[in-house]
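ok so i was messing around last nite and threw this chain in just to see what happens. nothing serious, just curious
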Amino acid sequence: TGKYATSLMRAFYPEGGTPENGFGYDYLPKLDDGQDASVMSMIDAMYAGKIKGLTCVGQNPACSLPNSNKVRKALQNLDWMVHVNIFDNETASFWKGPGLDPKKVKTECFLLPVTASVEKEGSQANSGRWMQWKYAAAEGPGDAISTGDVFWRVMSKLKELYAKDGGTFPEPILAANTDFVDGKGRYDPERVAKYINGYFLKDVTINGVEYKKGECVPGFPLLQADGSTSCGNWICSGSFTRAGENLMKRRKKVDPTGLGLYPEWSYSWPVNRRVIYNRASVDPQGKPWNPKKALVQWKDGQWIGDVPDGPAPPLAMQGGKLPFIMQPEGLGALYGPGLAEGPFPEHYEPMESPFKKNIMSAQRVNPALHSFGKDMNPIANASPDFPLVMTTYSCTEHWCTGAFTRWQPWLVEAQPQAYVEISEELAEEKGIANGEKVRISSARGTVDAVAMVTVRLTPFKCGGKTVHQVGMTFNYGWLQPKECGDTANLLSPMVGDANSMTPEYKAFMVNIDKIKA
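result:
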């Protein structure tokens, strides 16, 4: 991966990076031994006072992350926080949240207004890997500027201060690329997209073809490890032609294969390939397994159809290769390198469950999972105080924590406040009627909500006993509107899975009690 890493460094440091400093790699901060970059680890470090400042962009971790009480306490331990968003939210205003005296919160907070997605142009990608260029529908209101403008201004001011006053280690700041604005001094998304695509930094000849300094690199196979190319993201290289034409703007509806690939509509990373590992759709002779749906095929000594996943001939031909080109053995795999567990799935109980034992294994929970201590993260497994299994999810009218949607009165009218779904059987057992207010509690906190009695949930018979499951949305918070309640993540534990550190939002233990009038 030397050509990709070197080209990335050259995008960061087109001038100051040299072979002696790893083309700028030596400038970059590194993780300490044993440290990971997960958000829960970051919150834990904030809670411990190891992180002094936070820049939060377009997020609402005070509601979206597990164990919101610990998250909100961690924010109080910062010296400063910069929040960049289109609306205020529970994170930006955590210092005046429930139970807090703003005079006693030392964190200095800055809320910077930025434009919404429809108020700026740029690229957006979908799950089919299509990178499509979009245009601004309106100007941002008031003082709002794009997020790119915010960071360009901050970085430019930092460079100015370091150039004037020096510093302990000024080189990474002074050498950093900030060539991201147009002739009017405004952040230019297309200029940045070209840096992501990559440039030739000097005249070069590759496979007999001459490329000039300043031309866009038309595909990642042309990236070089000697520092002669830059590229902010190798998989995006090729989204511009050599002459600088933005292929993400294409909107032609031609479909030669008839399979809905539309190869001239926008750009699909990498190299405009519409289906990854498409050579797996043919036999060793290059003939499609399903001739009626020929994605690619080998004909007259070349591949036709979609951009082939690797130019090598089919396996039966001279020089032929297997189709999974990103795997060293050329085959698909159920298990990849670098995972903390595997190769086959095993059933483990969640960190919190109704059971003291795992009936499928002698190991109750995954031994490789991550749990973030007992301080403000207590765990209550098989506890009679918390007998109900909680799962969290999203609702139809609010997006994520609702920070974007709870400002829209018609959406609030449709789903005005936090609610918890319970079965008819549990409602009868608890004496709770539909629409009554209840208090949900876990080992980590409590939240009030409205009971929604539903047939969607039914009791389970597990281990010889009845187990009730309840469900709650995390789309709410205390700030807006005032009477909507708060997030379900006041209840969830800080526990991450063994590989991706995804939190255990989907299964933990709670109790529910009716709030007496």
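not much to say yet. The longest helix spans residues 147-165.
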